[in-house]
Amino acid sequence: MTARTSEDIREKRTCPVCDDPFETLKTTRQIYCSPTCRKDAERRRDQARDEDRARRLGEAAGMPSLELPPQPRPVSRPASRQLTLEGDPLEPTATRNCQHCQQPVTIVALLATPEAARPSVPTAIPDIVPLRRTP
């Protein structure tokens, strides 16, 4: 039986970022030659993902703008009623940016009317008194 040499367990690979050859163990999953190349590849992937997402959402490339949605136009009603604003029933209720990735997150009221979504809280003394633990 022959002994294994260090050349048997090492192999030459090429870094996909800088195209430099490097040696690593065959049993490792090392893809990049250095942490710098790994971070550069991650930055490129993130940039490509952000550009693709912006293209799908119809946004311009770059930082998301903080524009407000257009105001709904007033609808003329008979004189017996007041002027009301027409809104698309499928229009998002609110749009906010995610606190982690700063991408837009749309909140849509699907099951509740605005009155049910914002219940009034009574200002009088509540009927239920919270329990207090005694030592």
Explain what this protein looks like in three dimensions.
- The chain is of the alpha+beta class and 135 residues long.
- It has a domain at 7-61.
- The chain is 23% helix and 16% strand.
- It has helices at 6-9, 35-57, 114-117, and strands at 10-14, 21-25, 74-75, 84-85, 94-97, 104-107.
- It has a two-stranded antiparallel ribbon with strand order 1-2. Strands 3-4 form a two-stranded antiparallel ribbon.
- A hairpin with an 8-residue loop joins strand 3 and strand 4 (84-85).
- The protein is elongated.
- The N and C termini lie far apart (75 Å).
- The relative contact order is 0.07.
- The model has no long low-confidence stretch (mean pLDDT 73).
- The count of DSSP E runs of length 2 or more, i.e. the number of strands, is 6
| Structural class category | alpha+beta
Total number of helices: 3
Element pattern in H and E: HEEHEEEEH
Helix content: 10-25%
The major pleated sheet works out as:
2 strands, antiparallel
Mean pLDDT: 73
Strand order of the biggest β-sheet:
1-2
Q: Which overall shape is indicated by the principal axes computed on the Cα atoms?
A: elongated
The end-to-end distance, rounded to whole angstroms, is 75 Å
Beta-strand residue fraction = 15-25%
Uncertain regions spanning at least 5 consecutive residues: none
Radius of gyration equals 30 Å
